[in-house]
Amino acid sequence: MAELRLAASRDDAAPEVSGAASAGPVSIAVRNVSKVFARDGQETVALDGVDLDIREGEFLAVVGPSGCGKSTLMRLIGGLDMPTRGEVTIGGAAITAPVTDLGIVFQKPVLLEWRTVLENVMFQIDMRGEKRRDHLDSARQLLAAVGLADFENRYPHELSGGMQQRASIARALIHEPPLLLMDEPFGALDALTREQMRLDLEELWLSTRKTVIFITHSIDEAVLLADRVVVMTPRPGRVDRILDIPLERPRGLEGRKTPEFLAAVDEITELFLANGTLHASRPVLNLLNKKEP
């Protein structure tokens, strides 16, 4: 089993890892990565000294407050941006350009309004210059897998938000990438649709076992989906702790009722209280609500 190397705390010590480390070879390595954005003479440190190992075939969730560098970390892994310091490698090779052998699902579906659902899925194939006839059957199978078998000839404006996001997931998977990056893919959905999407994503992942990096603000979502959860500090983003999630799969709707789920949620909540992401009370609100004697 590959050694777990995770270091990204304020004093450069390795963050605590809760639970046993997941088995499997390391496929992605993030080493001492920092990212600084400069604008109008001002510098913003988005990530600071992040070390992380991601194992082949695991579902890894990254949870943290807005502005902590979660999406930046995903972009660095995808080669959509380069670190200011440090290195990201996939299969031992340093990332120096956009990675093509992956799928990306963003918070918004980003579908082409003039293309049908099937044509949107095939857009990935068209952009790669591959033969359509080699992928049409796979596209239809994917649409069936995400519940859109009867909607392949519909246009995006005819679909609900959840259905549009399902189409974007199918588009990300059509070329069979080993790695799937998901940047808050359910963030814009209503609560019921989000819950169904979570159930469907787990089922889809169990059938493919792709490596998934899932960015989210939701503690519950991270625990219910992931093999491990990376908890980030407020900006500059550092790894506060990595939790191994011992919930049996499939987790389904029953996962929320288990002691393991409740314990993991409590632990992450306590971390966010300790690092200032969450506040038990707001002094300003207390002052506003205070009655004159």
The total count of strands amounts to 11
Unreliable spans are: 1-14, 17-22
Mean pLDDT: 87
- Helix-strand sequence: EEEEHEEEHHHEHEHEEHH
Major sheet strand order: 1-11-10-4-9-8-7
Largest sheet: 7 strands, mixed
GO molecular function, one term: ATP binding
Family: Belongs to the ABC transporter superfamily.
Domain ABC transporter: 28-259
Keywords: ATP-binding, Nucleotide-binding, Transport
Describe the structure.
This protein is of the alpha/beta class and 293 residues long. The protein has a domain at 1-94 and 210-293: P-loop containing nucleotide triphosphate hydrolases (Rossmann fold). Helices cover 31% and strands 24% of the residues. It contains eight helices and eleven strands. The chain has a seven-stranded mixed beta sheet with strand order 1-11-10-4-9-8-7, sandwiched between helices. Helix 2 runs parallel beside helix 4 and helix 6 crosses helix 7 (259-274). It holds the Pfam family ABC_tran. Residues 28-259 form the ABC transporter domain. GO terms for molecular function: ATP binding; ATP hydrolysis activity.
Compose a concise summary of this entry:
The chain has 293 residues and is of the alpha/beta class.
Layout of helices and strands:
Elements: E1 16-18, E2 26-39, E3 42-55, E4 59-63, H1 70-77, E5 85-90, E6 93-94, E7 103-105, H2 117-128, H3 136-145, H4 161-173, E8 179-183, H5 191-208, E9 211-216, H6 219-225, E10 228-232, E11 239-244, H7 259-274, H8 283-289
Parallel strand pairs: 1-11, 4-9, 4-10, 7-8, 8-9
Antiparallel strand pairs: 2-3, 2-5, 5-6, 10-11
Helix pairs in contact: 2-4, 6-7
